[in-house]
Write a structure and sequence with these properties.
Distance between the termini: 35 Å
Strand order of the largest sheet: 1-2-3-4-7
Helix content: 25-40%
Structural class: alpha+beta
Radius of gyration: 18 Å
Number of helices: 4
Largest sheet: 5 strands, antiparallel
Order of helices and strands: EEEHHHHEEEE
Number of domains: 1
Amino acid sequence: MKDLGKLKYFLGIEVLRSQKGIFINQKKYTLDLFTETGMLDCKPANTPIVVNHGLQIREGTESADRGKYQCLVGKLIYLSYTIPDIAYAVSMVSQFMYQPQTDHLEAALRIVRYLKGTFDYGLLFQKTAKLEIQAYIDADWVGNPKDRRSTVGYLHSRLRESCLMEK
């Protein structure tokens, strides 16, 4: 094994250290995603998903390219590790991986447009003097029109770290 020094960049995640703590983001990974999708000059969206989106599989709707859709959603899943505010929207579009339709692709591309305005966001793990646990949760109760199941997302931090969205 070689000592390569302090971690700065690993698997698309940038690690920045300061007196406040450790900040991680995926800015370069996100910029590469804009280039791959041809959305480098797109207009940012205010939210990652439309309120009351009603995404579902509809009969007679045009199908999207499944391979490209799966690749895009997979990249969005990876981005949600450091940008947790897209987690709910990504979980919604990932439900249609096996049979994507054009409205599902449009919803996934809206997430990319949202990232245009937030690509420099990340997670700050702050240094603190006391032991604390923080948790954040969001839920869509009985939001699935087909089986009336709920969708829940959560983020938590333990020990001496607290997770905060930081720009």
